[in-house]
Batch of 3 targets.
Target 1
Amino acid sequence: MRAMLIINPSSGKEKAMDYEERAVGILGKRHDLVVIRYTEKAGDAAKFAAEACDGTYKTLLAMGGDGTINECVNGLAEKKQKPAFAFVPLGTVNDFARALQIPKKPKEALALLEDYHTKRVDIGKLGDRYFMNVLAVGIIAEAVYDVTPEEKSKYGHFAYLMEGAKAFRNKTPFQLQIEVDGKEAYHDKAYMMLAAMTNSVAGFEKFAEQAEVDDHQLHIFLLKDLSISKAVSIIPDLFKGNLDSNEQVAYFKAKSIRVKADTELVVNIDGDEGVPLPFQAEVLPEEIQVIVPKQL
Ligand SMILES: Nc1ncnc2c1ncn2[C@@H]1O[C@H](COP(=O)(O)OP(=O)(O)OP(=O)(O)O)[C@@H](O)[C@H]1O
């Protein structure tokens, strides 16, 4: 059986290329042939990952940031003959790696291929798009687009918090209507909605502390109020893992959601601009087999 190695040469300050030789060496021990594909533009990684589902590949290894990993997940989703998926996280935030305890050091992440311990993990589906981390509507979703690559490399994932705090000023809420698993769960004003597949959101590993990668659930958080006196309590709860019980937050778990709003809003899918509301999304349980550390 073959292995495919997808490299985004622009990821992680161009670090991806440094680890190519080591990756090929490790993959070469378990596979007859290692096919290397370099991405040049958006969409390439998804296309290559889909090609790796032709039944001749045992393993797909991606080296890149969350963008490349999301594309690979999109290429693999709902294919019959998926290879096991491994990745070396080279982005600034690396939420999927945080959730799966994949080491940040590329050498250590590559060493996981020696053990080849795998776990089936859930992903989400919205129309013809797939996500492994988070859907967002409202303030934070908009703030994500304003974070520049320079801010990301200077402040890491805190750049999102800074941009988010700026965006909180002068905001008015929208009316949001949410159905979870076919039942109306929320119909009121909100400033933001997040639906997380994993515990780590924008680098905050305690955001959805209760979320497991294979719990078949979306973890839905709604920010109901934003008066300064009350909103400040959210920051400590964000770090302590208590967001679900915060007074300003409504929290639901569900296998599927439908979301409508009274204003024009766009859903952000794993950090990228998605479709306008209304939308519906669902969990695809244990859809992707990922190479992870033994303790997971
Ligand atoms: N050869 C290339 N040169 C420049 N850009 C590329 C190349 N190949 C792919 N890309 C772009 O890189 C994007 C993904 O980048 P990456 O994997 O680093 O994710 P990211 O979301 O930017 O990571 P993070 O935010 O965690 O730093 C792709 O969507 C594509 O647009």
Target 2
Amino acid sequence: MAGRTLFDKIWDAHVVRELGDGWALLHIDRHLLHDLSGSASLADMAERGLAVHDPDLVFATPDHAVSTRPGRDGMTYVPGGRLWSALRQGAQRFGIRLFDLGESGQGIVHVVGPEQGIVLPGLTMVCGDSHTCTNGALGALVLGVGSSESTHALATQTLRLQRPRHMRIRCEGALAPGVTAKDLALHIIGLLGADAGVGHAVEYAGSTIEALEVEARLTLCNLTVELGARSGVIAPDERTFAYVQGRRFAPQGADFEAAVAAWRELHSDPDARFDREVQIDAGTVAPTVTWGTSPEHAIAIDARTPDPRQAAGQGADAIAQALDYMGLAAGAPIAGTPVDWVFIGSCTNSRLSDLRAAADIARGRRVAPQVRAWVVPGSEDVKRAAEAEGLHEVFAAAGFEWREPGCGMCVAANGEQVPPKARCVSTSNRNFVGRQGPQARTHLASPAMAVAAAVAGHLCDVRTLA
Ligand SMILES: CC(C)[C@H](C(=O)O)[C@@H](O)C(=O)O
Ligand code: SF4
């Protein structure tokens, strides 16, 4: 038998029935629900008189539509309150565990899954959210699903899926000081394009990936969907096992040891075949930011915006449009661009390690007077851990607002918007037109780069910050 990829190994272990033409019915080990798509799935189930097949494998938490204002409750953002109570009612009706506001386990669904040990190596997991790919960093087969797939999975604990093609992105070399997994991810998308992964499952491998901490791997995998791929995966290793050990829903004691023994088999065989292989020289990656309205509009901080006059055909129009929306000149240095807002948060960069990296730059500095800057921890547990270390005080002393856990300004589904034409440096994953509010302008960056921009008042290289 030919060698198998990591993805194949997890897939094969979950096939309930082969359906032909590459399709199979797969067992789904975990299902996560959030207030936007999850509340809708549960309402659909109720309306159709369906029962949840295995409520113990389903977990819910409000994140998108809840306010992150200090002292908030579920009704602080009134339009979102309806979704919050629908999620609560649905969870209660079907006997699903809900991590509610103020409780350990509440937070952005993709932060909570790994943090609580709900997502584990070798498992299959779905969630009605495109950034479910984040969880592949633990060596799990994870998929963002649509509403009918979500209902199917709730009702049957299975999903009918077509095996994707395989793509391996091999990253070699040590990241330079000041360069993070976020910069690497943006660099990769900038290089390959936002549709490079369509139809593929991505595996990240190589010495750079092996050297990344698990939380940094989560950041990298989070951006896989911005490459067009539904899932990204990293082979679990000693770092993964150490990360998982002791988490609330992870196996404990002898069960954990037995699980680790099985998890050690979860890697692509040396002779596994990939449909596409890409090599990335990670040692040359610089701190990277986006200039335009797609994550593929990524450039090194010391580079210039593109010039449509030097591009051909449709590409030129798209560049001109993006520059116009962003209020930027063609062929101009991106560094020095003045900034109005800074948002540190989202399922990309709101874990404890991200907040530590941000605090390291913020310590002893001040947010520029014209800038408004927020730090939104990814989960209740992240918030508590950060406060126990005094990070909230570092941020407050530097002039940042310290907020409650949730998606916050990432997609503005909770009314927290960047004002029209204001420019925001954001640690999130999407800079689409109107993403952070109508006419809002978003530059994606790492937490350290976002703090550097907040302090300088303009986009700048964190490595040269005064
Ligand atoms: C609202 C939700 C379904 C959506 C997603 O699928 O990703 C959101 O989380 C996003 O980041 O755009
Ligand atoms: S933080 Fe942003 S990207 Fe992540 S799930 Fe929430 S809205 Fe989507």
Target 3
Amino acid sequence: MDLIARISQQFQDSADTKLAAVELLAAPIAAATELMTSALLNGGKILACGNGGSAGDAQHFAAELVGRFERERQELAAISLSTDTSIITAVANDYAFEQIFSKQVRALGHPGDVLLAISTSGNSANVIEAIRAAHDHDMKVVALTGKGGGKIGELLRDDDIHLCVPAKRTARIQEVHLLTIHCLCDGIDCMLLGEDE
Ligand SMILES: O=C(CO)[C@@H](O)[C@H](O)[C@H](O)[C@H](O)COP(=O)(O)O
Ligand SMILES: [Zn+2]
């Protein structure tokens, strides 16, 4: 087995997927940046959720908003719904795993907040329920998906933003999701602080 060749191929595939995605995603990522910045400036917050690697992405995004990305700025309101093991285990145990995010959206979400919903397949039931709860609370949704967008693509409304990575492999989609999250952080900082030199 030629591991070096496999690794080289993965780097190549990741770079190719990112370059194919920028054509489709640059404009909607810019729109998502404006939506999130406007929500934050109006006293709203961003709730983020996802499973597995996407749970890590939700936490990563919240950490960069509450802490910092690349520049010093005011703390920004973001909460990962994938983080509180007591809430997640209680809701999964007492109700259903599908409700672990939606119950938190119903508890914490207000009109004007934004839900960042992350699912590579677009089909995770708990992320779908979170989007339904966000709509019930007059929150807009930014959805990070792949594989054609799945059921989430069908559920989104016209004023939501769908960032669907044009790829089929979960790992490649996740890599573009993380890049997208960093673009959102950079764009929010840029809108709040101005362009850096
Ligand atoms: O990170 C990975 C695979 O790269 C896994 O942990 C992956 O996130 C999990 O299988 C998730 O449950 C997949 O959910 P989704 O992206 O389809 O919503
Ligand atoms: Zn992964």
